[in-house]
UniProtKB/TrEMBL annotation:
One of its GO terms (molecular function) is pyridoxal phosphate binding. Pfam families: Ala_racemase_N. This is Pyridoxal phosphate homeostasis protein. The keyword Transmembrane does not apply. The modification N6-(pyridoxal phosphate)lysine is found at K36. Signal peptide: none annotated. Belongs to the pyridoxal phosphate-binding protein YggS/PROSC family. Coiled coil: none annotated. It comes from the Bacteria. Pyridoxal 5'-phosphate (PLP)-binding protein, which is involved in PLP homeostasis. SUPFAM superfamilies: PLP-binding barrel. Keywords: Pyridoxal phosphate.
Amino acid sequence: MNHIGENLGRVRSRIDGACAAAGRAADAVTLLAVSKTFDAAAVRAAAAAGQRAFGENYVQEALAKQAQLQDLDLAWHFIGPLQSNKTRAVAEHFDWVHSVDRLKIAERLSQQRPQALAPLQVCVQVNISGEHSKSGCATDEAAALCRAVAQLPRLRLRGLMAIPAPTAPGSDPRAPYRALRELFAGLSGLGLDTLSAGMSDDLEAAIAEGATMVRVGSALFGRRQVV
Ligand SMILES: *Cc1c(COP(=O)(O)O)cnc(C)c1O
């Protein structure tokens, strides 16, 4: 087995352990492998070890990788900040978008989603820690944005995504994920099923608070070079 295969095994056991600790079924949580900055060969190695869903942050980088991996049946999730001039490429080349944080972006994605493809699966990203510089809609705007996105014909709203600020030492790592879960619970009329939350360092805290999809990069592929 390649080292990515071994890392996948370790991450899957962490997910299983966290599900067991929370009294949740092991298949309640999907692993999204975040392959940004890693090349197509790394994705191919993960796919050989059974991983199907991959997350990417940068459109050009992702399209180049997808072109090299067309022989594989993979699901591609866009998880990075999304500008208007990139929505068409994302609408045409991804299965999911986790980072919808304003209506204008959602409307463009819906207009630009090709009819031949299934609806684009989307999550609304929430700035759950209220950081000034971060992407994500404000917590108190999330419900209205979700209701508007749910109306768009070529999108299917699946849930919420968040990237909490790092918690200070000694403070509860579950607190931001608990806030996200409460927000999610308040949207029950929309039929949502996805809470995209938790990364390499804190997936246990997120799963304890109901995450259904964890986005894991460095624990699978290794440390990223700073670009
Ligand atoms: C890079 C990234 C991840 C993965 O982070 P790791 O700490 O490497 O697991 C998850 N989600 C988003 C949105 C990212 O940009």
